[in-house]
Amino acid sequence: MCEYRAAGLNDQAFIVEMARQASVIEDRPLPEGDSADVLAILPPSLDTVVIGADGSGRPLGAAWWHWHEPPLLCDDDGSPLPEMIVAVVEELRDRGIGTGLVAALCAKAATRYDALALNVHLRNRAAGLYTRTGFRVAGAGRGFFGVAMRRDLVP
Ligand SMILES: CC(C)(COP(=O)(O)OP(=O)(O)OC[C@H]1O[C@@H](n2cnc3c(N)ncnc32)[C@H](O)[C@@H]1OP(=O)(O)O)[C@@H](O)C(=O)NCCC(=O)NCCS
Question: What is the Å distance from ligand 1's center to 77 Cα?
């Protein structure tokens, strides 16, 4: 069973590990924790993170939003949309934890923003999760195979 909770200082190393998982492209090796790709997607503060944890608090996955320069998508008034990152410990995937993390993060973000954006590699299986949870293609993403997606949030 997975519970969704706020992140604390003890979760910082885990969040970096999840950012490494979310940075990997296809079957290439995981980037280092201090690589530019990983640093570029880390959360700006713990306040933007939701942790999926087991009954004893052990983290199983994480989702957060962050700000990327240049922004992927902007709102009608030109304000950049926060971008979502999600990852689950490899051995614990396909059990609904990712779906729960997206739901929990969207609920948290809905109190502050109108929409969330994300960038997904065309061939990343995560695209199915995003479509199932209400994200829709909103344009070209980053790189040759990047797709930008957006989900409107209801407070
Ligand atoms: C993408 C990611 C976060 C998904 O996490 P997850 O916990 O496996 O997600 P879920 O279990 O909710 O959904 C995954 C699949 O399991 C299935 N599933 C969900 N609950 C299930 C259950 N109880 N039993 C069996 N299957 C289940 C879902 O139908 C889903 O299938 P689909 O994606 O083909 O539609 C995870 O694969 C991951 O960490 N990937 C590496 C990081 C990454 O690429 N992040 C995205 C960067 S854009």
Answer: 33
Q: Which domains does the chain have, with CATH numbers?
A: 3-113 (3.40.630.30)
C-alpha angle with apex 137: 65 to 33, nearest 5 degrees? 35
Cis upstream peptide for 82 (omega within 30°) = no
Q: Rounded to two decimals, what is the model's pTM?
A: 0.96
Average pLDDT over residues 21-45: 92
pLDDT tens digits, 55-86:
999 999 999 999 999 999 999 899 999 999 99
Measured from the Cα of 129, ligand 1's closest atom is 33
| CA 132 to ligand 1 center in whole angstroms | 11
Measured from CB, residues less than 6 Å from any atom of ligand 1 are 21-22, 86-88, 93-99, 120, 124-126, 128-129, 132
Q: Which two tokens stand for residue 111?
A: 């109190």
Helix (H, G, I), strand (E, B) or coil at 60: strand
